[in-house]
Amino acid sequence: QVQLVESGGGLVQPGGSLTLSCTGSGTLLSNTDMNWFRQTPAKARELVASISGGDDTNYADFVKGRFTISRDNVKNTVYLQMNSLNPEDTAVYYCNQHFILSDHWGQGIQVTVSS
Fold it and tell me: What is the distance between the alpha carbons of residues 105 and 107, in angstroms, rounded to a whole number?
């Protein structure tokens, strides 16, 4: 059974930082395309950051320079380091493992940026 489990979310003040983790079980995250998405009630799910199987990274314009995606193959975990958070970053964040014919999704984790 494949599972992606997110952790590290919570409440943070504007300007603060959080690191999200996505740990895989039943699937290896190394050498695969991994993504972080986010969603709010008012907006469709949007892509935040990607790391390819070859470890190339890409970021949405609204997080460039603030967020960093990385992976630790030993821990079978992908991270999203989020700095300089603002209230507009409040959302449920989802980890995604993308294959050509299928996708695996985490259950989502809430990030709230508020004073």
Answer: 7
Instruction: Give burial (CB, 10 Å; 0-12/13-18/19+) of 93.
Output: buried
Q: Rounded to the nearest 5°, which phi and psi values hold at 88?
A: -70, -15
Q: What's the confidence (pLDDT) of residue 114?
A: 97
Distance CA 24, CA 114 (A): 30
Sign of CA dihedral 74, 69, 105, 98: negative
End-to-end CA distance of the chain: 39
Torsion of CA 97, 102, 1, 107, to 10 degrees: 50
65-110 pLDDT, tens digit per residue, is: 999 999 999 999 999 999 999 999 999 999 999 999 999 999 999 9
